[in-house]
């Protein structure tokens, strides 16, 4: 990452503001989350999972941390959990609706 | 006629009869019976004769008269379909137009605007920007911040598609505005750099914290930026995500949320722009004899 090495210290004060920076961050996020999926980890913020993340997705996690601002990392990790729960809820409601139809 | 008056009479008869008892009831029943009989006699018809209500007796002894114009069934059907189709198309279109107009009218509110109002900001070129800059053209306003992780960039890309489709397909140009909810970090220079990634016509607006807060309040945009942020602090801003469509009088028309995609959003905007009626004309419509159509 020679390109970004010179503004490495600036990154915290200036989160990615251009399209290419955002793209880089999103890509490393997707790679990290894919790895989490494989390792069957949902909440990356949970300290219980930190060991498992270190052993399974060390490289992806480092890239993610490198390419995204801290606030974004926190946001994406929280969003992953919320999105998962929302999908679960939608699935559950749909199943309940189907069951009610069958019962009628 | 016959059927109706008979049943009415019967009801008249039965009601008091049920209430009274003994001789009185008998008498009333008899009187009622006479009334009914007299009515039959005055009509000169049997009570159960089958004359259709309001009908006239058949004069031609069942013969069908031949018309002077011969009409082929095929042509008749074609004409019927054409006229019916054209009429239903026309009425549906008019109905839709009036509905959209009514919706806009309702959002405009009476007297005090329900959304929008005076604000004072600065655009990314350093010029003053107030609610007066909304006059004379349709504007679409989005509130966001340049460090928004994923939703704002997606929404701004969508806005770019809308703007391109609107101008190329419908010849409609909007004034797109991006008002930051994060004035501490989004200086005019930052906004300029940020918005250069999106549609070139999007104008970024910023101001002091209080100015931005006032603008957000007027548009009922919720946002949570801490007022005293240390320089270099890394944080996110929570904010509501709507596009606000404003008419050339600077009045609020509609809010478009994330449920509108690249196509449906364009359709909605086109509908509003096409059904827009300037204030003078609206006043005239209200006074005209056909004003009930617009109520």
TrEMBL record, chain A:
<protein>
    <recommendedName>
        <fullName>Cytochrome c oxidase assembly factor 6</fullName>
    </recommendedName>
</protein>
<dbReference type="InterPro" id="IPR048280">
    <property type="entry name" value="COX6B-like"/>
</dbReference>
<comment type="similarity">
    <text>Belongs to the cytochrome c oxidase subunit 6B family.</text>
</comment>
<dbReference type="GO" id="GO:0033617">
    <property type="term" value="P:mitochondrial respiratory chain complex IV assembly"/>
</dbReference>
<dbReference type="InterPro" id="IPR036549">
    <property type="entry name" value="CX6/COA6-like_sf"/>
</dbReference>
<dbReference type="GO" id="GO:0005634">
    <property type="term" value="C:nucleus"/>
</dbReference>
<dbReference type="Pfam" id="PF02297">
    <property type="entry name" value="COX6B"/>
</dbReference>
<feature type="region of interest" description="Disordered">
    <location>
        <begin position="1"/>
        <end position="22"/>
    </location>
</feature>
<keyword id="KW-0539">Nucleus</keyword>
<keyword id="KW-0963">Cytoplasm</keyword>
<dbReference type="GO" id="GO:0005758">
    <property type="term" value="C:mitochondrial intermembrane space"/>
</dbReference>
<dbReference type="InterPro" id="IPR048281">
    <property type="entry name" value="COA6_fun"/>
</dbReference>
<keyword id="KW-0496">Mitochondrion</keyword>
<keyword id="KW-1015">Disulfide bond</keyword>
UniProtKB/TrEMBL annotation, chain B:
<keyword id="KW-1015">Disulfide bond</keyword>
<feature type="binding site">
    <location>
        <position position="152"/>
    </location>
    <ligand>
        <name>Cu cation</name>
    </ligand>
</feature>
<keyword id="KW-0999">Mitochondrion inner membrane</keyword>
<dbReference type="GO" id="GO:0006878">
    <property type="term" value="P:intracellular copper ion homeostasis"/>
</dbReference>
<dbReference type="GO" id="GO:0005743">
    <property type="term" value="C:mitochondrial inner membrane"/>
</dbReference>
<dbReference type="InterPro" id="IPR017276">
    <property type="entry name" value="Synth_of_cyt-c-oxidase_Sco1/2"/>
</dbReference>
<dbReference type="GO" id="GO:0034599">
    <property type="term" value="P:cellular response to oxidative stress"/>
</dbReference>
<keyword id="KW-0186">Copper</keyword>
<feature type="disulfide bond" description="Redox-active">
    <location>
        <begin position="148"/>
        <end position="152"/>
    </location>
</feature>
<dbReference type="GO" id="GO:0016531">
    <property type="term" value="F:copper chaperone activity"/>
</dbReference>
<feature type="binding site">
    <location>
        <position position="148"/>
    </location>
    <ligand>
        <name>Cu cation</name>
    </ligand>
</feature>
<dbReference type="InterPro" id="IPR036249">
    <property type="entry name" value="Thioredoxin-like_sf"/>
</dbReference>
<keyword id="KW-0472">Membrane</keyword>
<protein>
    <submittedName>
        <fullName>K7_Sco1p</fullName>
    </submittedName>
</protein>
<dbReference type="GO" id="GO:0045454">
    <property type="term" value="P:cell redox homeostasis"/>
</dbReference>
<keyword id="KW-0479">Metal-binding</keyword>
<dbReference type="GO" id="GO:0005507">
    <property type="term" value="F:copper ion binding"/>
</dbReference>
<dbReference type="GO" id="GO:0033617">
    <property type="term" value="P:mitochondrial respiratory chain complex IV assembly"/>
</dbReference>
<dbReference type="InterPro" id="IPR003782">
    <property type="entry name" value="SCO1/SenC"/>
</dbReference>
<comment type="similarity">
    <text>Belongs to the SCO1/2 family.</text>
</comment>
<dbReference type="Pfam" id="PF02630">
    <property type="entry name" value="SCO1-SenC"/>
</dbReference>
<feature type="binding site">
    <location>
        <position position="239"/>
    </location>
    <ligand>
        <name>Cu cation</name>
    </ligand>
</feature>
